[in-house]
Input
Amino acid sequence: MTLLKLVENRMHELPALPLIAQRVVDLINNPTSSAGELERVIQHDQALTARVLKLVNSAYYGFPRRITTVGQGIVILGYRTLKELVLSITIAGLFQMKGEHKGFDRIALWQHAVGTAVGAKISAINILCWDS
Output
């Protein structure tokens, strides 16, 4: 069996993103959506609401007063950071599943991803230098 066929046969086994995460990503990718729409969707998920507020109130952003609403958090974080936050929370949760995926090594995945990125960067630099 070819690798392509193996991937095609097992694709249906991949878990889907939770509905809230899908909705947030769809709204962020929609140029006509508003921060208010995002706020209403995010507020339906208490864990996501808490994570947005925790991030926006972290020392990294250094606001002199506490940010207390998701709407303020969205404006401060921006769509890109919000999207990255939602996807990282969701994907991390998917890797904590039980059963067949139990024992998944997130550190090994991270190390592989970093190694691949470094290799790609070195290759790109070499290709650009070679083309010159």
Summary: The two ends are 41 Å apart (CA to CA). DSSP finds six helices and no strands in the chain. Residues 102-132 form one domain. Residues 106-131 form the longest helix (26 residues).
